[in-house]
Write a structure and sequence with these properties.
This protein is mainly alpha-helical. It contains 6 helices and no strands. It has a domain of 37 residues.
Length: 154
């Protein structure tokens, strides 16, 4: 209760000195701005700017580039947008004819072309890969053997 009383009394007090500038410091006296306004004006030394950024012997991007234009042929009379119209009967006939042909892709069975040594290396690699991915079953077997060992010890 005592804390709330002091807090409310603190709200009623006015600070002795405010943190903001008073309006008198920015007011003008007799129609002329105060000295603080004049100090904030920016002045440019234009001759220095011209000498620094535009020297007489410096060329800023006015170089002519002598390169041929990129070759591009424009479509003639909407050629790009329009194709030939498809006839459903012709398309169906072409699809039926292509279904009778064997596929053009190669089979994955290329072992006939490989030499005996290459086939042996492939078989060895596949065997090692199968052994590597068989770790789960190896762990199960190891746990089973450890459990049997523990049973034998007791």
């Amino acid at each position: 209760m005592c804390d709330s009383l002091t807090m409310s009394s603190n709200l009623q007090k006015k600070p002795s000195k405010g943190i903001l500038k008073t309006s008198r410091s920015v007011d003008t006296t007799d129609g002329t701005p105060s000295t603080s306004k004049r100090a904030k004006e920016q002045r440019f030394d234009e001759t220095n700017i011209l000498e620094t950024f535009h020297p007489a012997n410096k060329d800023y991007g006015h170089m002519k580039i002598d390169e041929p234009k990129t070759p591009y042929s424009e479509p003639v009379d909407g050629e790009a947008d329009q194709g030939e119209e498809l006839d459903a009967n012709i398309l169906a006939a072409k699809l039926a004819a292509s279904m009778n042909k064997p596929p053009k892709c190669m089979d994955g069975d290329e072992d006939m072309e490989d030499s005996e040594e290459v086939r042996r290396k492939k078989a060895e690699f596949e065997k090692k890969r199968k052994m590597h991915y068989n770790e789960f079953q190896a762990l199960q077997l190891a746990r089973q053997l450890m459990a049997e060992d523990d049973d034998d010890d007791e």
